[in-house]
Amino acid sequence: MLRAAAAVEKLGIPTVSILGSGFLKQAEVVMRGLGVSLSVGVYPGAPMVDSHETLAGKVEQSLAPGLLAGLTGEDSPVAPKFASVTKKEAEPGPDDVVFSGDYDRVQSYFHKQLWTDGLPIAPPTRARVDAFLKFTDLPPDHVIRVIPQEGREASVHSIAVTGVMAGCRPEYMPVLIAVVECISDPRYRIADAGSTPGMEHMVIIGGPIARQLDVNTGQGVMRFGRQANTSIGRFLRMYIRNICGFRIPPGAGDKCSIGQSILVALGEDEESAREVGWPTYAEDRGFAAGSNVVTCRSVVSITSPIYSAGEDPAVHVQQWTDVIGGSFTYWAHAGFKTGLWSPLILASPSVAGVIARHWTKDQVRQYLFERIKVSAGKATHYAQQTSTPTFNFERLVEQGILPPRYTQSDDPDRLVNVIIDPKMVEIIVAGDPGRNQARAYMSNHVQGPPTSREVRLPADWDEMLKQASED
Amino acid sequence: MSEQSNEPKFDVLWPLSRKGVEDVARAARLPDLNGKVICELWDVIFRGETIYPMVREYIKKRFPGVTFVTYENFGNFHGARESEVMATIPERLRHFKADAVIAGIGA
Questions:
Q1: What is the nearest CA distance from B63 to chain A, expressed in angstroms?
Q2: Separation of alpha carbons B7 and A67, rounded Å
Q3: Which of A55, A218, B62, B66 has the fewest other C-beta atoms within 10 Å?
Q4: Residue A60 burial (CB count, 10 A)
Q5: What distances in angstroms separate CA A240 from CA A23, A243, B91, one per listed residue?
Q6: Cβ–Cβ < 8 Å for A35, B21
Q7: What is the model's pLDDT at position A131?
Q8: Cβ contacts (< 8 Å) between A162 and chain B: which residues?
Q9: ipTM rounded to 2 decimals
Q10: Which pLDDT belongs to residue A56?
Q11: In chain A, which among 409-428 make CB contacts under 8 A with chain B?
C-alpha cells in the first residue's frame, strides 16, 4: 500500500494512507526503503475484530482526522510522527571493517545491531568473504537488483558476506547467487515477505551440483544436520532479514504474526526420479536435463507426513488427496483471490516408484485437481474471516482471476476446485527410499510463487571444487 | 569472554549493502480541499467497503466542495494483478484530474 502511495507522490500528487496501528514500525522501514516521507491516518487496533459501532468510533476519532491532516498538512494529535526518512545516516561501505574483537564480542555486536537471526554467525572477515567471491565470475559490486523493502543493493558482495555468516562453504556461492536472483524477480514479490501469514521460503536444488555440494536428497531431507541444506536455508532467511530488511521485534519490518521455523534447502533425488521414469523437477520447470537449477518458493503451510501403501497408484494419490485437502483447503481462499497457489508434494522414491509405474505426473495432478474440493460458501466464509468481507467468486470470475467453472451456479453448497489449475501442482522425488512417505508444502498465493534460475558456474569450477573438497 | 582471552581477534565487514534508492520529495499538501478531487485506492481488504464511506462523510463535513472518485474506478492495486493495475494508475489519476489520493488499507 505504501509503495502505491509513493508511486503517486512521485507524480506530484499528495497522498495519505490508511494504516493499522500495529503496522507503524514497518511503515517507517518501508518509507526509508522508498525514500519518501508519507502521510498516514491510523486505525487503532485490528479492524477485522471490531463491531460496526467500534469501527465507526475509531474512524471518527482517529483515522479520518489523521487522513484529513495528512492531506491538508495541518498538525494533528492523531497523525503519527515518523523520523525523517529522507535524512540519510552515514553508513559504512560494503567492504568496510565495522568491528574488531574476539568471537564472543563479534557475536554480541552483531546481535545488538540486529544483524543475526538469533544464532551465532561465522565472522565475516575479508579473507572469508574473498574466498566466496572466488567462486563466481561476477564482480563483487555486481548488483542483481535494488531489492525491497529497505531498497538495498542485492550485490554479489552482500551475498558472499551473508553466505559466510550463515555458515555456508565458499563453493556454495553459485547457488547462493541463484537464490538471490530468484527472490529478486519482481514476480516473487519479496516486498511482501513480511506479511502477517508468516510464510517461510524454500530453496530447491536440482542438477549435478546437488551431489557436488553434498546436498541431502534422501533420508532425513528437510531436517537440520547437513551443512549444505542447513546453511543454504539459513542463508536465505538471513538475506531476507539483513538485506531486504524484514526483522521481527525488537527490529521492525517483518509483520509475520505467528511464524514457523526456517526451512533447510531441499535437494531432489534426480537419480530416483529418472529411475521411476518421471521428469525431474527442474525439467518440469522448463530446464534441460542435467541443468543446475535453483528454485525458490514460499511455504505457508506443511502437511503431516502422508503414509500410503500397496501397488495401486490410486490408493497412494488418494492419501495425498485426503491430507492435502484437509491441510490446505482452508488457506486456498488466499489463492482464489489472486488466481494462484501451488502445492508441492515431496514423494519418497518408494511411493513415487509405485505411482510412476502407472501414472505420469500430469495424471497425478489431474487426480488431485478433480478430487480436492470445498463448498463455495465455506471458502467465502474463510476469506471473509481473514481480511476480505467483500469476497465473492462472481467478481473474481468477472475479472478473469478465476475460470468460469467457479460460478457455474450460485448455490453456496456447490463444490469448487481447491487447486485452481492442475499445472500448479509440483512433485519432487526425495526423502527416505526405505519408507512409504510423502509430505506436501503450500505456497502463499502470489507471494513467493515458484521461481527458478539456472546456476552459473565459474569458468574453472571443476578444479576449484576439487581444491575445495581437499580443504 | 574478553579481549584478554587467547582467542583470535576478527576484523569483520559490514554485513549490509548500499541503499540504492533516490529520495523522493513529497508532494505539497492541500490546505483547502474544496473544489479538489480525491481519488481512492483500495486493496480490497480490511473493511474498506465500510471505512471509505465513513471517511468521505467526515472529510465532506469540513470541506463540502470536495469530490471523491471511489475505489471501484481503479481496481485492486495489491491483488492478483498488482503490476498491471499499478501501471494504469498514473493515467487513471490524470483522467480523473486527481488532486490527492487516499490509499489503503494496511492492517
A1: 10
A2: 57
A3: B62
A4: 14
A5: 19, 6, 34
A6: yes
A7: 98
A8: 15
A9: 0.92
A10: 97
A11: none
What does the alpha-carbon distance between residue A335 and residue A447 come to, in Å, rounded to a whole number? 10
Mapped onto helix, strand or coil, the DSSP state of residue A139 is coil
Sort out which chain A residues have CB atoms less than 8 A from B38's CB and list them.
71
pLDDT for A176 equals: 98
The burial of A114, by beta-carbon neighbours within 10 Å (0-12 exposed, 13-18 middle, 19 or more buried), is given as middle
> Minimal Cα distance from A92: which residue of B?
B14
Tens digit of each residue's pLDDT (9 = 90 or more) over A26-40:
999 999 999 999 999
Residues of chain A contacting B92 with CB distance shorter than 8 Å: none
Alpha carbons A365 and B51: distance in angstroms, whole number: 42
Give chain A's residues under pLDDT 50. none
A 277-336 residues with CB < 8 A to B? none
A124: Cα separation from own chain's centroid: 25
B37 close contact with A: CB closer than 8 A:
no
- Residue A184 amino acid letter: S
Return the residue in A31, A72, A126, A162 with the most chain B beta carbons within 10 A, the one to mutate for interface testing.
Answer: A72
CB proximity under 8 Å: B 58-97 to A: 58-59, 62, 77-83, 86, 89-90, 93
Question: Ramachandran region of residue A286, left (φ > 0), alpha (ψ -120 to 50) or beta?
Answer: left
Q: Mean per-residue pLDDT for B6-17? A: 95
0.90 exceeded by pTM = yes
CB atoms within 10 A of CB A342: 22
